[in-house]
Amino acid sequence: MKFSTKKTLVATIALTALTGPFVASSAFADDGEPSPWLVRVRMLQVDTQQGNDAGGGIGADSIKVANRTQPEVDVSYFITHNISAELVASYPLSHQVQLNGNYIGGLQELPPILNLQYHFDGMGKFVPYVGAGVMYLRTMNVSLLGGAVGLQQNNWGEDVQLGADYKLDNHWLLNADIKKTWVSVGLDSAATGGTILQLHPDPYIFGVGVGYRF
Q1: pLDDT digits (tens, 9 = 90+) for 90-144
Q2: Fewest CB atoms within 10 A around its CB: which of 39, 66, 165, 202?
């Protein structure tokens, strides 16, 4: 997906989320449903892939960004009964990095994700959903190979999502969710400033938690 296409997708999802309250408020009031706002707290397992292009004397698929377990908070807004926009937020994740199985340093990354979702009816308290959207991955506090290389700071990717809520009552619910993301991060030479190769961590993100519908 080209950068311009990603920006267009971000703008579309964001515009939908911003205009949703004007469309949805009366509909939810008429239906007697809870408010359109849903907040979840989940524990995430971020499983990264061992993937990189070859370059600068580094072989293909020889770099591994370590997996990570961490809590997160996400907020959803239901534009209609079935359609919602979800923003996944988290504090920075810290990862160790290995080259051919050897530790070469670490990094932090902040990966907010914005998805548009469709929730299915007809299964009682069990409500499955699918989603897709964009992620923005910002790297920081990078320390690799003694500072000989760095990482591009601002990176865009995309994701798809499959999940389900189980309603305990009109407000509380249990949640399970999986996302598959695709993102590339440039590995840069500190000496020349040029990009040596592209990392492809492409993490799977597994989440379980609880939610509250206001």
Answers
A1: 889 999 999 999 999 999 999 999 999 999 999 999 999 999 999 999 999 999 9
A2: 39
What pTM was estimated for this model as a whole? 0.85
Cα–Cα distance list, 81 to 52, 121, 198 (Å): 41, 9, 41
**HSE toward the beta carbon, residue 189, CA cutoff 13 A:** 11
Q: Domain limits of the chain?
A: 3-213
Residue 91: CB partners within 8 Å, gap ≥ 6? 70, 110
Span 3-213 CATH architecture: Beta Barrel (2.40)
Percentages of the chain per state (helix, strand, coil), in multiples of 5: 15, 60, 25
